[in-house]
Structure formats: structure tokens, C-alpha cells
Specification:
The protein is mainly beta. About 5% of the residues lie in helices and about 50% in strands.
Length: about 1000
């Protein structure tokens, strides 16, 4: 259920509103002044009850009074001379059929008086007629005219009026100073009314209520603040409240903290949410600020929210800058209970250079498209989900203030659909868009040469079944035999010319053909392109990568010709498993798999260059492979007893596993998957090992099985997983547990493989990873790769580049005296959070919908929580990559975010970081939030934007707050672009 921020001032202005307002002004308020024809004729002024006297002292003479209590009568049309009966609550009068037959019940605490058709009640008096009730200190009921009058009483001791009328009509409640009501016509005249309509609080001096429960109010105010003196309100001479629908206003202005502002409109609508709470349409107030070194002063994120229905809401926003830039957007959220929910955004920006004399920075057109869709009913046979994030190359760079979005150079999108058929068959499809935004031109500061890949997948799988035990089996060993099927198809379209096949490792010169690169290419051309590109960057010119196809309509044909299609299938077969020595699991297996391609590579030796030319041939080319495998695994434990004061023992759990797989040689010419080249007799080409001159026709085409190196393979894979935990004595044994387990390492693993039949590099790299939780709120993760082989220095005289190079050779590092292995890469991440215990407790409210609470609890970072006095999040990441013994790269950053409260209503927020490699801070934002009960104020300042090409800025925001956020004491964080969503996502 969509629940936007309902506290916003909602104004809908159109021609029909003006016509309706004029009609209401003449028909409604004119009738309110038409006293001669008013059916509610004034009653005689009631006698004043003496103050500070007992009820007995003011009671009328005997025979005309009734004791305090509950009396019943029926409204009738008798003449004034008839005598009304009083007595027990069961007394009643006979009423003609054409009159009201509903019993009127009345009561009072002090006394009552009956005079013919008139009943007067004093002291906590109450009259009930069907769904209508009226409470006041004094009530006068006229049974002849079917009217009731009520007012309060001035208490000289308390020096205030007490017992003012409270009128209830079904679910509506009206607090008034005086009221006259006709039970028959259902019309009323009211003095000084206060009523709640939806989330709006309406107050007025004089009011007329008609039979349709519409209110015509003079001297009125409308507000969503529920305080006695509201922080803000709409001041209007005239209002019409259309029952359960909306408020129609005449000319009005805005008043904040009792200060009238020259802000208003000649008329407007204030809709009420319906019973199903579809939300409230209305204007979204813009945010004000400045980018001093960028686009100048701005108004942004202003617009209109449209509550379409209970399932969907739309938000239209725009922005404008003093230096010419502008933008617009559409976002929405939708929800179908028990089925699905989601949201989307469409953003467009036209950005002009901040420096008016800057000729390098041309106007930029940026866009962003996001869409998220998630199913809610997991048990259904079909499932559809989407996560789309498609942006222009420089959108995040110049239009986002989210640190992760700005620093990321990639974006991914996917749409998935799957369906289950029967018990075993499942099919699915997936559409993906992967973007790489390119590199920043150091002169212009704009990202260039972005890459976009669009791919689609289809898969069909049959779960493994036991053909010999379809009815459950009897436990025989062969009944554990299982068989399955998997088919995958993939199609790719990219603006990257598919010329960049992996040409390394051949051992000879490779000359790609025109059919691959789209034009003749040689090493000289590559060198010339690199020189020209460096010159262009230095001069600040826009640089286009010759290996990229620009995304536009003119190039759609070229991009389609650059497509790649392949299909993959596999038939896994699980053979019966066995136990060895009771504790070791032995599982044999057999598999058949292969790829299907839409083209293959052809190789041709070129004598003049002593190299090989590669061309591409289109067609239908299936491949296949089969292999056998077997694996064993077990688990054992070891415990070291310490018997310390608190530390009792340390337990070590080890889970080793070893597997072996064998694949025969498919490089024979019989299969046609490989091509073997021979040079002329005596040529240097023939001195290259034969296995290097046996070339795969599907290398680099995206498949898995067809690109397997030639020759047979027997791969032994090994791995070991360790867990370390402590057994410690609890500090407090009130829980009944004397000891508890504390993890030291949740996972410490090592894995690798060895190819028994490979010609070189038999041993793979060794992967080591670990993760654990240090203390209660510190998370630590580390992963590393070790290379066991030696890098040999090749002098520049022996290399084609003329510079010294390190080459990885088939020699173990330990044999060269360099240790067991060389660290190839390392990534470490540690994070912690400090906050009071109640900070992580979910928000609860009986007045909020499930969708609202779910959105708030799932996205706590989108809100400023005034209930939490402080919070601090700290993270540190380290990355190391070694390309050779003398070439490496290090990434080392720290991020710090948090907030703190100076007072219960003032909250300060901050976000910053530091890049140790560049010795500069990352995007730094400082915010100040003020809780104004029904309003919220926010000031955000970005003193450092993380780049010389991004502008620092500040912004100021003042907006009304929804009742749910008032209740939870939350304020919505407002980023540069808000993502929308349920529960206040629309403002």
C-alpha cells in the first residue's frame, strides 16, 4: 500500500477548481447567511444555571422536573400544547409512521427540566440519537422542532469555559463552542469548530453543516499540525469541506509560527486519503542551494506527487540552475499485496559548464534509468524480478552525491523470469546490461569511451532424478544413481569490437584479420593509435577509442554484426557414493557437456611475417566433452583444554576435501575443435612446441568447454576449511548456561588444483581466505592469492618493446630460492558500528501500514532518527595487486559516517573518508537537521566533492512531515536524487 508523505501542503489548481469554488461560494455561504429560510430557527436563550450552587438549588418546581439520570423519548410532530411524559427509562411516546422512530436518549449529571416539548439538561449532559451523540455542559432539546442546542459554561474558579460541546456523527468528531443541530434535516449551525479530516486539522469561527455532512466554514485555518497552536497553517476566509473527500479553499496564504507569509493562491484543493489510504496528491516543495564552482544557485527536487490509486504513486520532479542547467525526472513505486512490489526512476539532465568562458566543457546530456521489481509470493510456479540501473557515462560523476555511485565505474542491470513445470523441470530467462563508464579525461574531467554490453540468457534444467528409485526405493546401492540435464543459451551485443581476443601465450606473432577488427590492424597501427590518443588527452580533445562503436542509431547495424551467440549443455551423472572406513565419503561421477557457437576462428600461417593470421567464420558449430571424476571428503575435530579463569578450551574443526577429474584429448583433427599449424620445413615457426601450435577454434568466444586447452588433463583439486572457536565461561549465569562458544575464525580456507598431465604450469594459484567477527560489532574479511611460479627478468635487448620485462616461467619459486609462493593479490576489509543498543531495534507503530514500516526498517540509512542520540560507522579497506615482482598497485581507503544530537531536536550528520594512496579526502558531506514536530528543516553542505571536476555545494530544505514520521521521530534524508518508495518516499 503506497503511503507518501501526507504532511505536505497539497495544492491542485485548475479551471474546474475555480468554477467549483465560485459555485460553492454562492450556493454554500450565501445559504449560511439566509436566516429567514434557515430550517434551524434560533431557540430561546436558555436560562443560566447559577454557578457554584448545588443541583437541588437550581432544580425547577415539583411536577416539572426529573431527577438526573437517563431518559428516553421519541421525536414527534406534536403541537406545543402537548405534555411530555417523564419517568423511567422505559417510558416512550407513540409516534406517527411518517416521523422518526429512533429513540432519543438523554442524560445529565446535575439536573434536567421538562417543559412540554422542551427538555433542558445541566452538568455533563449527553444526547444520543442513533449514530449521533452530543455532549456538553448545557443541552436544550426541542422535540417539536427536532432541534438540539448545546454550549459550555464559564467556570469563574478555573477562569475558563468548560463542558464545550463535542458532536459525533459516526466516525467524525467536532469540537465546538456552540452548536444547533436539526435531527430531521441533519443540518447544523456551529460556532468555533475544531475537527480532524484525514490528516488535516480544520478550525473555523462560524460553520454551517448540511445534510450531506459538508461543512461551510468562515474564518478558517487548515493544518496537519495537531498542536493547540500549530507550527503552520493555511489561512483562508472561506473553506468547504466535502465529506470524506477534500477541502476546497478560497483565497489563502501560508502562516508559519503565527507569521503570515505572502505565499498563497486564489484557490486550491486539499484531498483526503480514502479508507484504503491511497496517499495524498500534492505539490513537492523544492530544495534550495548553490554549487559555487559549478552550476550556480538552484531549485531542485520540486514537483508534484500523484497518488494514482492504492497500488501506485507517481512523482514528477524538476530542477533549474542559475547558469543554465536544468533537469527533470519521473519516479514511482507500486505494490500489489501478496504478489509483487517495486519502484522505478527516469532522470534526464542537461548540464552546462560552470565556467562560462570554458570552451572545453561542452553541454552534457545525462540520463539514468532504474527499476526494481520483486515478487512477494515465493511459492508461485513463476517468478519475475528486475534490477535495472542504466545510466550515461557521466551521470553519476556529475549528478550523484552517493559515495558508492560516484566512485563506482561500473553499473549492472538484470531482469529475470523463471517458471517451474511439474516436479522436475524448470526454465528461466535473464536479460543483463553491464556498463563500464570509461576513464576520466584529465583535462576535461569527463568520463570517455564507456563500454556497454547487453546480453540475454535462457536456461532449461531437469533436476537430478533417481531412475531406479522413482517410487522411493528400497535402500539398494544402485538406487542412488542420479541423472540430470542443464541447457544454457547466451546472446551478447556490445559496442566493444570483438577483436580483443586473448592473443597472449601463443609464443608467436598474431595478426588479426579484417573480419575480426573491422579494419586491417598491425602493431604499427596500435603504436600510432596510442601516440595519437596521448596527444589528444594532453590537448584536452575528446578521445574516441578505435575499438569502440558509438551507441547511436547509425551504428545499430555494426553493433548487431558484433553479436556473439553460444549455447551450453551438460548432463551430470551422480554415481552411487560409498563410505570408506566409516568416516570418509567417496563420490564418483561422470559428466557430458559442450558448447554451440555461431562462428569459429580459422588460422593461417603467414611466412613473410613469421606469424599467424586469424579470421572469423560464421555458422553452426557444436562442441562436446565428457569427463569422469571422483571426490572424497571428511570432517574431524581437535580440542585443546586450557582450564583458565574464563577460557575453558579451544576447538579446531577441519574439513578437507580432494577430488580428481579426467578429460581425454579432444584436440585431434577428428573432432574439428582444434587446428594444428605447420610452417615450411626449417622455419623457426616449427621450433615452437607442438602443443602451442595446436590452436582452439573457439578460444575467447565466451564458451567454457570448447576452449579447453589441447591434450588430456587429469586435475586434482584440493581444499581445506578450518573453523576455530573458544569455549568460555559466561559472566552471568542467569541464563542457565555455564559456557558459551565464541568464534575465532568462522572460516579459514585454502584451495587449489594440480593438473597431472599438463605440459607446464601444472599447479594453479593458491587461494586463501578468512572471515570472522572480532568482538561483537567488528567484522573482518580477507582474501588472497599466492602464485607458486617464478618471474624471470628478460633484458630489454631481448624484448620487442626494448624495455626490461618480467615473464612468468614454468619454474617453482621455491626452486629459485624465493620461498614457497609470491603474494599475487590481497583484499582486506574491516568494519564496525558504534551506537546505543536501541539503535538497531525495528520501528513499530500501530498507525503505520506494513509497507511503510517495512520500507523504513529495510532502509534505515534514508532516515535521520532523533530517538538515537548518536551513531558511528567506520570501515577500512585495503587492496594489493602484484603484476610482477616490481609492478604493483595498492588501494587503501577509510570511510566514516555517523550522526549525533546536541539536543533532542537538533541532529548533526556527517559522511567523509580518506584515500591514503591519493592522500586526499573522499566526498565529504555535513548535515544539520531540525525536528519541528510537523515540519523538518535540513541543511547539507559538501565542502569537498572528491574531485576537482565536481562542484562542492550546499542546500537548504524546509518541508512538512507526515504523521507517521512525526510519531516515529524520523526525518527523511534527502540526497541529490531521492529514490522514492513507500512510507514517505514521495514528498
Amino acid at each position: 500500500m503506497i503511503e507518501p508523505k501526507k504532511g505536505h501542503i497539497i495544492l491542485r489548481v485548475n479551471t474546474w477548481a475555480l468554477i467549483l469554488w465560485l459555485l460553492l461560494g454562492f450556493l454554500g455561504f450565501a445559504q449560511a447567511q439566509d436566516r429567514p429560510t434557515n430550517p434551524l430557527s434560533p431557540l430561546p436563550t436558555p436560562p443560566s444555571k447559577p454557578v457554584n450552587q448545588s443541583p437541588e438549588a437550581t432544580r425547577p418546581a415539583s411536577g416539572t422536573s426529573a431527577p438526573a439520570g437517563t431518559q428516553r423519548t421519541r421525536l414527534s410532530g406534536r403541537s406545543a400544547g402537548d405534555t411530555a411524559r417523564t419517568g423511567t427509562p422505559s417510558d416512550s411516546a407513540k409516534v406517527p409512521q411518517d416521523q422518526f422512530a429512533t429513540t432519543v436518549r438523554y442524560s445529565s449529571k446535575d439536573s434536567s427540566q421538562v417543559n412540554g416539548q422542551i427538555v433542558e439538561l445541566w452538568g455533563e449532559a449527553e444526547v444520543v440519537y442513533g449514530d449521533i451523540s452530543l455532549k456538553a455542559d448545557y443541552i436544550k432539546l426541542n422535540q417539536e422542532t427536532n432541534e438540539v442546542y448545546a454550549r459550555g459554561r464559564y467556570d469563574s474558579t478555573a477562569k475558563k469555559t468548560i463542558g464545550t460541546p463535542i458532536f459525533k456523527d459516526r466516525s467524525e468528531t467536532y469540537n465546538t463552542k456552540e452548536i444547533r443541530y436539526n435531527f430531521k434535516t441533519k443540518k447544523a449551525l456551529v460556532t468555533s469548530i475544531i475537527t480532524q479530516q484525514g490528516e488535516g486539522n480544520i478550525r473555523g469561527k462560524t460553520v454551517k453543516k448540511d445534510a450531506e455532512d459538508n461543512l461551510y466554514i468562515r474564518g478558517s485555518i487548515y493544518t496537519t499540525c495537531n498542536l493547540a497552536t500549530p507550527h503552520f497553517h493555511i489561512n483562508a476566509p472561506k473553506l468547504k469541506v466535502v465529506h470524506n473527500k477534500q477541502v476546497v479553499s478560497g483565497p489563502f496564504n501560508l502562516v508559519i509560527n503565527e507569521i503570515p507569509l505572502p505565499i498563497g493562491l486564489p484557490f486550491g484543493f486539499f484531498p483526503f486519503p480514502k479508507k484504503k489510504d491511497i496517499g495524498v496528491s500534492g505539490i513537492i516543495m523544492p530544495q534550495y542551494g548553490e554549487e559555487p564552482n559549478g552550476r550556480g544557485f538552484y531549485l531542485r527536487d520540486g514537483g508534484y506527487y500523484w497518488a494514482v490509486n492504492e497500488n501506485i504513486g507517481l512523482q514528477f520532479t524538476g530542477q533549474i540552475y542559475s547558469r543554465g542547467s536544468w533537469g527533470g525526472g519521473l519516479s514511482g513505486a507500486y505494490n500489489k499485496r501478496y504478489r509483487y512490489n517495486g519502484g522505478f526512476q527516469l532522470r534526464y539532465n542537461r548540464n552546462f559548464a560552470g565556467d562560462l568562458i570554458d570552451t572545453l566543457n561542452k553541454p552534457r546530456t545525462d540520463f539514468a534509468i532504474t527499476w526494481n521489481h520483486a515478487p512477494q509470493n515465493i511459492g508461485r510456479r513463476s517468478s519475475f524480478s528486475a534490477s535495472v540501473n542504466v545510466t550515461s557515462n557521466s551521470y553519476n560523476q556529475f549528478n550523484s552525491f552517493n559515495t558508492a555511485a560516484v566512485t563506482s565505474n561500473v553499473a549492472g542491470s538484470s531482469i529475470q523470469y523463471s517458471r517451474t513445470f511439474g516436479k522436475y523441470v524448470r526454465a528461466g530467462s535473464n536479460l543483463r546490461v553491464n556498463q563500464q563508464f570509461g576513464q576520466i579525461n584529465q583535462t576535461t574531467g569527463v568520463r570517455e569511451n564507456g563500454k556497454t554490453d547487453v546480453s540475454g540468457d535462457f536456461n532449461l534444467s531437469v533436476n537430478q532424478i533417481a531412475p531406479f528409485a522413482l517410487k522411493g526405493g528400497t535402500g539398494r546401492w544402485y538406487e542412488s544413481f542420479r541423472l540430470g540435464f542443464q541447457f544454457d543459451a547466451n546472446a551478447q551485443v556490445s559496442n566493444t569490437i570483438r577483436s580483443q581476443f586473448d592473443t597472449t601465450g601463443y609464443g608467436f606473432r598474431v595478426i588479426p584479420d579484417e573480419s575480426i577488427f573491422g579494419k586491417p590492424v598491425s602493431r604499427a597501427i596500435f603504436i600510432q593509435d596510442s601516440i595519437q590518443r596521448a596527444t589528444d588527452i594532453r590537448l584536452g580533445r575528446t578521445v574516441e577509442d578505435p575499438n569502440l562503436i558509438a551507441f547511436n542509431f547509425d551504428n545499430l547495424g555494426r553493433i548487431w554484426d558484433n553479436r556473439l551467440i553460444n549455447m551450453r549443455y551438460s548432463i551430470p551423472i551422480a554415481l552411487p557414493n560409498f563410505k570408506i572406513a566409516r568416516y570418509i565419503n567417496f563420490t564418483p561421477g561422470f559428466s557430458l557437456q559442450g558448447d554451440i557457437y555461431n562462428y569459429r576462428l580459422n588460422y593461417r600461417y603467414v611466412p613473410d611475417s613469421n606469424g599467424v593470421s586469424i579470421s572469423r567464420e560464421r555458422g553452426f558449430f557444436p562442441t562436446y566433452q565428457f569427463s569422469t571424476n571422483a571426490s572424497i571428503n571428511t570432517r574431524f575435530y581437535g580440542t585443546a583444554f586450557i582450564r583458565g579463569k574464563r577460557l575453558e578450551a579451544i576447538r579446531h574443526t577441519v574439513a578437507p576435501s580432494v577430488s580428481i577429474s579426467y578429460t581425454p584429448d579432444f584436440s585431434s583433427s577428428t573432432f574439428g575443435f582444434y587446428q594444428r599449424l605447420e610452417g615450411p620445413a626449417g622455419s623457426a615457426f616449427n621450433n615452437i612446441p607442438e602443443y602451442r601450435r595446436t590452436l582452439s577454434r573457439f578460444r575467447g568466444l565466451g564458451g567454457t568447454y570448447g576452449s579447453t586447452p589441447p591434450g588430456q588433463s587429469a586435475i586434482v583439486s584440493f581444499g581445506i576449511v578450518n573453523q576455530l572457536e573458544m569455549k568460555v565461561r559466561t559472566r552471568d549465569d542467569s541464563s542457565g548456561q555455564e559456557f558459551k562458544k565464541v568464534p575465532i575464525f568462522d572460516n579459514l580456507s585454502l584451495n587449489g588444483s594440480y593438473n597431472l598431465l599438463a605440459n607446464e604450469f601444472n599447479l594453479s594459484t593458491i587461494n586463501v581466505s578468512a572471515n570472522t567477527q572480532i568482538a561483537k560489532n567488528i567484522n573482518f574479511n580477507i582474501s588472497s592469492v599466492f602464485d607458486p611460479y617464478y618471474f624471470k627478468l628478460i633484458p630489454g635487448a631481448e624484448t620487442s618493446s626494448g624495455q626490461d620485462e618480467y615473464v612468468r616461467i614454468n619454474q617453482y619459486l621455491v626452486n629459485a630460492g624465493g620461498g614457497l609462493a609470491r603474494l599475487s593479490s590481497l583484499q582486506a576489509f574491516i568494519s564496525t558500528r558504534f551506537a546505543p543498543k536501541k539503535a538497531d531495534q525495528p520501528k513499530k507503530s500501530p498507525n503505520a501500514s506494513d509497507a511503510t514500516l517495512k520500507a523504513i526498517n529495510q532502509n534505515p540509512d534514508l532516515y535521520v532518527d532523533f530517538n538515537i542520540p548518536w551513531s558511528l560507522n567506520l570501515s577500512y579497506s585495503f587492496g594489493y595487486t602484484s603484476f610482477s615482482p616490481i609492478q604493483s598497485a595498492i588501494i587503501q581507503t577509510m570511510q566514516l559516517t555517523g550522526d549525533f544530537s546536541l539536543t533532542p531536536k537538533w541532529k548533526f550528520t556527517f559522511q567523509t573518508g580518506y584515500d591514503f594512496q591519493f592522500k586526499a579526502p573522499s566526498i565529504t558531506t555535513i548535515g544539520v537537521n531540525r525536528d519541528l514536530h510537523c515540519w523538518e528543516m535540513a541543511f547539507n553542505w559538501t565542502p569537498y566533492a572528491g574531485s576537482a571536476f565536481r562542484a562542492g555545494n550546499y542546500s537548504f530544505d524546509l518541508r512538512a512531515k507526515s504523521s507517521i514520521l512525526q510519531e516515529l521521530k524520523l526525518s527523511r534524508r534527502r540526497s541529490f536524487y531521492d529514490s522514492g518508495g513507500f512510507g514517505g518516499g514521495f514528498r
